[in-house]
Amino acid sequence: MVMTHICTEWDYHVNALLGIPFKYRGTSPEEGLDCWGLVCLFQEKLRGIRMSAHTEVYRNKGILDTAVRYEVQWYRLAPTDKSRFGDILLFSPLNGVMHCGVALDSQTMLHVAVDGFSSPEAFNNALWRPRLASAPYGIYRYTGGSKS
């Protein structure tokens, strides 16, 4: 796969997050991360925002969209054809499983798939793009502020 532009000032952080194994509800790059744990770690490195990797709702019930809606108070939905570096991508369920990742550019995301490792993957295709199409799923862009 040919990668399109990744902001060079963040290459170090992105490269440090490649190859992390999947671990259900994982919160540690050393032991493994799930998709939400990876998003939280990325946002902390990118913006210094500590998002709760696993809110009580997510830890107890695995309800990713509830966790995301709680955590994205500093983010707003953006047009689905205008993703940019650092945007959170929240995908609607496929076979009952939700997914999220982080945009590296307008066509590529960093994510970790079940039984896989964190890696870049195109999301501007028939598998991923339609799953961003309706709220609350979509592209969430940072608008400022911080969690204390």
> Roughly how much helix do the residues carry, as a percent range?
10-25%
Name of the CATH homologous superfamily: endopeptidase domain like (from Nostoc punctiforme)
Given the structure, what is the number of helices?
4
> How large is the share of residues in beta strands?
15-25%
Mean pLDDT over the residues: 78
Structure write-up:
The protein contains 4 helices and 8 strands, in the order H-E-E-H-H-H-E-E-E-E-E-E. The protein has 148 residues and is of the alpha+beta class. It has a single domain, classed as endopeptidase fold (from Nostoc punctiforme) (Alpha-Beta Complex). The strands form 2 sheets. Strands 3-8-4-5-6-7 form a 6-stranded antiparallel beta sheet, covered by helices on one side. A two-stranded antiparallel ribbon has the order 1-2. A hairpin with a 2-residue loop joins strand 4 (88-94) and strand 5 (97-103). The N and C termini lie far apart (39 Å). Residues 1-6 have low confidence and may be disordered.
